[in-house]
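Minutes, project check-in

Agenda point 3 was the complex the collaborators sent over. CS summarized: two entities, 620 residues total, and the question is how they sit relative to each other. Sequences were read into the notes so everyone works from the same version.
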Amino acid sequence: MKIKRVAIANRGEVAVRIIRACQELGLETILLHSEPDTQSRAYRLADFKICIGAGPSADSYLNIDRNIQGALAMQADAIHPGFGFLSENPNFAKACLENKIIFIGPSPQAMKALGDKVECKKIARGLGLPLIPGYEGSDQSIDRLSREALNIGFPVIVKAAAGGGGRGMKVISEAPQSAEQIESAQREAQSAFGNPQVFLEKYFDRAKHIEFQVFVDCSGHAVHLFERECSVQRRHQKIVEEALSPTLSPQLRSQMSQAACLLVEKANYRGAGTVEFLVQDQKFFLLEVNTRLQVEHTVTEEVMGVDLVKAQILTAGLEPVFNSPWPLSPQGHSIECRIYAENPYNQGAPDPGLLGSVVFPEGPGRRFEYGFESGDEITSFYDPMIAKIIVWDETRPRALQKLMQVLKETIIFGVHTNIPLLKKIIDHPDFVNGRMTTQFMNENFSEFLTKPSVPPEVQQAVQRMAVGTPWAIGTSPLISANPFAAPWRSL
Amino acid sequence: MNYVEIEIEGKMEKIFYQKMKSKLWIHFLGQTHSIETQKSKTTAGGKNEERLEILAPMPGKITKVLKNENDTVNPGDTLVVMEAMKMEYALKSDLKGLIQQVLCRLGDQVSLGQKLVQLAKDSSNQDAP
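CS then shared the predicted structure for the full assembly.
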């Protein structure tokens, strides 16, 4: 293969995921990291590392020039952008090419064509794919946008033209909110993507979010790897994802997968991509295309038995992928949930801080993707996601049972996490039955969780041990202490 | 990982724990809890409390300052908008009153618990809670 040394322009769990894929392919890795990220698992795992700037993303992970300079200094012949940050920035892909570095992803042209939501809609319209009613004009005045919102009919959603990952998105439910919500979306878009341009869309109030994983190999052959359902979203960020969708009909599956392949082929796309749809009342509408690896790619890997990150790298190196009889067929069911450092008892506010003990209960069909270990700090510079927990089992009910058990046994000390919320989500009848829509979180979890109390005897027992006590171990009839290792692997 | 065993409803249960600064973290029966071992006043007030001091609920950047000193405010008025971990948070007043002091500026990087706005209660208002 042409690629020998890969630079990773990312951080956290995805950086670890890419480093592992490279190592398995026999490639050297270079981590392009920010100043605070020396305390991370990716830093410890990479063969080489180079600091490209300060903590704020704009000075490091979002800075094209610093990433390129770092990669050149370390003689990388390819860059993997991961997701978020510069992964969907055509200028970055272009800068890589100009510096004779292979960008592991689509060409800048294909990325621009599908990644820019306005551009993508034009192509999809040309192919006759079903689109969501909206306004995507260049007149960005609050006045014009407010009028267009009224025309579309409420509820209306405002989105960042250059966006993704829920940033710069706001829902307007009635006319008087228009100006404030549009302004807020423009501010977030400017801050997150450096571009304040927004567009408007009709907002669906009982739709499912279903997306198709597509892959185009180096010869230009497009295939789909079935769908993921990601209807459980809060503030437009996905929390729980699964493959396959528990309710998608075979007819819709066939139509949607065809539409997805058609779109990426038209744009002359390469590598992994995701075509997102909304499905309501047995109709589907194109939402957007993500021209990169997705956070939730893991559930597709689990049910399809493929390695998407390796496939991306091989495709960039002009090697064939998916060495199995075609078409691949899905096996069993997989669910992922994202663990965020946030306080579920305080409006889900981010809760950065130093990680104490971390225990992931390993076992068959349990996969843990994480970027930080005990002693590392979750800083407020970046997204508060600290880990992903992925389970696989033969059926959806079994996978759900397994996930509940894993969530109960997972221990993360030092920062609050959303695990208490996740347990309630996967236990909710609408989720268990697979009927959840993108409104699921708003409808069922708009109230914040109340903090459970700790029984006084538990508190006393632990306080005696942890805070110091005149009592010797074992003198209390109720308590026995084991100073040796816990039965679970400690990190 | 440290643990103690304690009998709960006739069964010996493991309680995992770790003390970090003033917080005691414990995990038992599938749940994680944190207990403050010292009384601290860094967190913002509870739901029904009328806060006179608006503190930063998390570290982040001030993206909008919507009120000036001596402005009057009503419950629910947004005072300051901050961005943390790429999400926007609006900090609102929960009382009717007056802005006594604005202690942050647009673009400031603020730390957890930092005082952002000092409010004064509207003394002309008769119905005190």
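Noted in discussion: DSSP finds 16 helices and 24 strands in chain A.
Follow-up: revisit at the next meeting once the mutant set is ready.
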